Amino acid sequence: MSWLELPAGTGFGLANLPYGIFTSGPDDRRTGVAVGDRVLDLAAVTGDPVHATGSLNAFMAQGPAAWSRLRRRLVDLLTDESHRSAVEPHLHPAAAVTMHLPVEVADYVDFYSSRHHAENLGRMFRPGTPPLTPNWTHLPIGYHGRAGTVQVSGTPVVRPNGQRKSPDAAPSLGPSRRLDIEAEVGFVVGVPTALGESVALGEFDQHVFGVCLVNDWSARDLQAWEYVPLGPFLGKSFLTSMSPWIVPVEALAAARVAPPARAEPLLPYLDDTEHPWGLDLALEVRLNGELISSPPFAEMYWTPAQQLAHLTVNGASLRTGDLFASGTVSGPARDQRGSLIELSWGGAEPLTLAGGGTRTFLEDGDEVTITATAPAADGSRLSFGAVTGRIAPAGTPVGGLGGS
Amino acid sequence: MSWLELPAGTGFGLANLPYGIFTSGPDDRRTGVAVGDRVLDLAAVTGDPVHATGSLNAFMAQGPAAWSRLRRRLVDLLTDESHRSAVEPHLHPAAAVTMHLPVEVADYVDFYSSRHHAENLGRMFRPGTPPLTPNWTHLPIGYHGRAGTVQVSGTPVVRPNGQRKSPDAAPSLGPSRRLDIEAEVGFVVGVPTALGESVALGEFDQHVFGVCLVNDWSARDLQAWEYVPLGPFLGKSFLTSMSPWIVPVEALAAARVAPPARAEPLLPYLDDTEHPWGLDLALEVRLNGELISSPPFAEMYWTPAQQLAHLTVNGASLRTGDLFASGTVSGPARDQRGSLIELSWGGAEPLTLAGGGTRTFLEDGDEVTITATAPAADGSRLSFGAVTGRIAPAGTPVGGLGGS
């Protein structure tokens, strides 16, 4: 029980204690911890310069013993009344601070680990063939994204220009007409590896520091024209948004669940019978405030531990700040789909909005917010905060539209 | 004419002056310039701390005016006899220094811009269909690679483990059996852009600092099983090697040529009629010292200026240290192909080596070296140095081989 009064039902109780980077005035970025409706200034309260670097990277690199030690200390500071006078001056109202990108993103990898999502896209794009490609149940498919355009929640989503191609016309340059979301969960690496090392399933929490929400904005028309044979590129690289709070893996012990039953026996490096890292996160997607989807992360076929084991099985090294995301989280039900292309079935079945109107893909001015909660050790539900973004109109492309 | 005696036929004359990061003893990395068979210590000779940061990034971020200024100063220092006594103590024998990764790589993008290479792969993998995908002549296809595993020339190439799948068997985990090279040319970004900006074709040399050689090592069997639908991942991410010397774009004025004739009219942002950035680089690929290919970079269909314009047309921002590579450089002739999969036609037509034996893909102990030269302003040919790597045996994969 904290001496600090926590709002009823807060998702930021002592069982959570997520880390982020904030400013309260001038641009002196420092590490904060969300507690109730406050942000605790870690640089000030601990005096440790690692929390005044402007990103979580240096602290994340210290490893799990240091992460646990600080977590225990924070609980002590916030429960033992004797610390109150020393701590209280360093609590800022959350509403009064500005949150920044929490990590310097090293490499960004995006997976494709929801079976429902992959099957939905397969049914839409390859009708008459099996919805999953033959490799899908054997390995977690993934690709590298653009780390430099991973930005913090709230960054304006400027509709990207790019080449679009209708079946009966030459390609043209112009604003994407099929701008979409992908509701995802992201995992941030703290402890690096050397080139040639691999991370076994049981070592997941020795390397991964924490968990956040990701919206991997996607221009479906750009992507459809460009992606054969080397995968998504400009259709994704204009922006990826991440939530400002990184929930420590340690806070998620009560959220661990077994993943779905496996369709095929897995190779030993992916056989997670003894190291299940399914996570029971409940996501919610809101369009202009209206709930349009509730994707269940527990349905994900490939767990983050399997993703990390696969990512490194070839000896690829990890760096502090590597971010890997789950891929779109979609459940079996229609209102559990994590992208508009699924929710509107490729635009053929527009969503009817309770607030009026319909939607296939995003319109200028639309705001999308993804939130999530998970069961906490104390029986409460902890919050991941939110990743949000509002669509701004496209700019004029270089060289003009050229026959768009 | 330099007061420094330059070896006859050196590719590192005053018309080149490429930058790299070196150590001559303890690990005090600093910026050097290759001159003849020497390396000039820029940190020492200029006293400028920007050259003692251990990477070229801070200098590259200063922009083209600063790049030109230093280049002029270097020519002055090396030609005016009066500077000799001040400069000479800071010239190290190139053979006595160790070269390091020259840039902190931000994002790494790999293109696919040789028409001959793309057609060769199309003919091998999709017989009976057009060798190029429909998008190929409309845009420079590319994808993001793993920046964290870009390493300097000479880094051992440990054969990667991964999933391989024969048509008639379940996938197995084990060492790649089809380890290959990709002879490429890389371009390093100095001046960043903000999110939402695009770089027009005519602005190429305002952002790109220099040019290097890249070997994008590729495990063809891993890649073949994993790459549908999201592109290459583990088949490439274990290692990408880059040459230690970055040749300034300014040194390549005499190497600029018009690119090949266009198969289709290009959209305005890619129409480079007024800004041709074809480059007449002559590459050579050696396997265990034997010349096996001479890929002509002037044959590349898409120029680096087009690649950069495309990469940013959706508003994706650039960072100092971004590296983008051309994709495998292959010419029309068999002995101009930049990968073993092309040289051995998928393994069906093994290369006969003059030194004895044959080769389809790389064997443990093989060493591959890629070099290149280009015409210089003074009529000589400037050198890009070399990117080299030797294949080391695979390690034991995590979890064992599991039925390999």
Overall CATH architecture of the largest domain in chain A: Alpha-Beta Complex
By CATH, the topology of the largest domain in chain A is Fumarylacetoacetate hydrolase, domain 2
Q: Identify low-pLDDT runs of chain A.
A: none
Write out the CATH superfamily name of the largest domain in chain A.
Answer: Fumarylacetoacetase-like, C-terminal domain
Shape of chain A: globular
List the total number of helices of chain A.
10
Please tally the β strands of chain A and state the result.
26
- Total tally of structural domains of chain A: 2
The CA-CA distance between the termini of chain A, in Å, is 62 Å
- Indicate the radius of gyration of chain A in whole angstroms: 21 Å
Task: Indicate the multimeric state.
Answer: homodimer
| Average predicted confidence as pLDDT of chain A | 96
Major protein interface: A-B, 70 and 70 residues
CATH class of the largest domain in chain A: Alpha Beta
Largest sheet of chain A: 8 strands, mixed
Strand residue percentage of chain A? 25-35%
Report the helical percentage of chain A: 10-25%
**Structural class, from helix and strand content of chain A?**
alpha+beta
Characteristics of this structure?
eight-stranded mixed sheet, 404 residues, Fumarylacetoacetate hydrolase, domain 2, globular, SH3 type barrels, 2 domains, 26 strands, homodimer, alpha+beta, 17% helix
Describe the model.
The structure is a homodimer of 404-residue chains. Chain A is built from ten helices and 26 strands. Chain A is globular and about 75 Å long. Chain A is 17% helix and 27% strand. The model of chain A has no long low-confidence stretch (mean pLDDT 96). Chain A folds into two domains: 19-100, Fumarylacetoacetase, N-terminal domain (SH3 type barrels); 108-392, Fumarylacetoacetate hydrolase, domain 2. In chain A, a hairpin with a 5-residue loop joins strand 23 (351-352) and strand 24 (358-359). Chain A has helices spanning 42-46, 57-60, 64-79, 84-87, 115-125, 204-207, 220-226, 234-237, 304-312, 340-343, and strands spanning 19-23, 30-35, 38-41, 91-93, 98-100, 108-111, 142-145, 150-152, 157-158, 161-164, 172-175, 179-180, 183-189, 208-215, 218-219, 240-242, 247-248, 256-257, 278-279, 282-287, 290-293, 323-325, 351-352, 358-359, 367-375, 381-392. The first copy, chain A, is of the alpha+beta class. In chain A, strands 6, 7, 8, 13, 14, 16, 17 and 22 form an eight-stranded mixed sheet that branches. A five-stranded antiparallel sheet of chain A has the order 4-3-2-1-5. Chains A, B: This is fumarylacetoacetase. Chains A, B: It is an enzyme of class 3 (hydrolase). Chains A, B: Mg(2+) binds at residues 216, 236, 240. Chains A, B: Residues 109-373 form the Fumarylacetoacetase-like C-terminal domain. Chains A, B: Its cofactor is Ca(2+); Mg(2+).
